[in-house]
Amino acid sequence: MTRPPGAGRFAPSPSADLHIGNLRTAVLAWLFARSTGRRFLIRVEDLDDRTFDDVAARQLHDLAAIGVTADEAPEYQTAHTARYDSVIDSLTERGLVYECFCSRKDILSAPRAPHAPEGAYPGTCRDLTDAERAERRAGGRPPALRLRSDVDEFTVSDVQHGTYTGVVDDLVLRRGDGVPAYNLAVVVDDAAQGVDQVVRGDDLLPSSPRQAYLATLLGHAVPEYAHVPLVLNAEGKRLAKRDGAVTLSEIGIEQALAQIAASLGFTATTAEAMLAEFDPVRLPREPWIYHAGGQ
Ligand code: GLU
């Protein structure tokens, strides 16, 4: 029996038009998948941004325009809420979920272990008694659901970064407003879609141990990771739309592809032709500094 090939993916949140940095990451995700015989998928991560349909449509249009083509129709997370519900139910049955009544401010001001990074959950609501929980519920604030994790850290391997160990706290599975949390949705969707290669910006590297741990807990294989350098503006800050002249409609397709190719050291200027020159080992390790409006 032949096994179906695994898949890579690009998973934009439809919060704003894709800028040249996002497009470059998408090209890289496509190159990683295609060069390893994987399928390539696009997933619209619209749990948070469900009102921005036109943005999603423009993102899909821009990806197609630069040759980042998917093998299947794009999947929208809001179409799969039952998927997240059933995973949270199964974790609840295993005794691995608890209600958390903390605000962000509570978490930031709570004492934390010496090496825990800012924002890591200190476990405040982990061992509330039934009475304490009833009292907090009566307080009116709808609780978030957190995972009762039994490790403090987890190690992943990354094509770009080698072995990476990072914090695993009691991560949020469902937010207080009822929306499935990013870390849960990403893990559940990647597994459901057969994604075994995750290529994305290296701002998400610190999230990968949490996601890999959750995948393991759910009985899924951990995908291969490649966290690629971000694109920065002339001030060395993360590129943003306000930097001006950074989206495909502002730059133009040909020019954008030429800039992406140059930044990756390719002479080819279409996604298809870049495939022949692609070698992950030779990818730049440093952020690309982008001078909007003129290179
Ligand atoms: N939707 C996330 C973002 O746009 C990316 C998620 C992922 O690639 O895992 O930042």
From TrEMBL:
One of its GO terms (cellular component) is cytosol. The keyword Ligase applies. Coiled coil: none annotated. Keywords: Aminoacyl-tRNA synthetase, ATP-binding, Ligase, Metal-binding, Nucleotide-binding, Protein biosynthesis, Zinc. It comes from the Bacteria. This is Glutamyl-Q tRNA(Asp) synthetase. Belongs to the class-I aminoacyl-tRNA synthetase family. SUPFAM superfamilies: Nucleotidylyl transferase (SSF52374). One of its GO terms (molecular function) is zinc ion binding. The gene is gltX_2. GO terms for biological process: glutamyl-tRNA aminoacylation; tRNA modification. The lineage of its organism: Bacteria, Bacillati, Actinomycetota, Actinomycetes, Mycobacteriales.
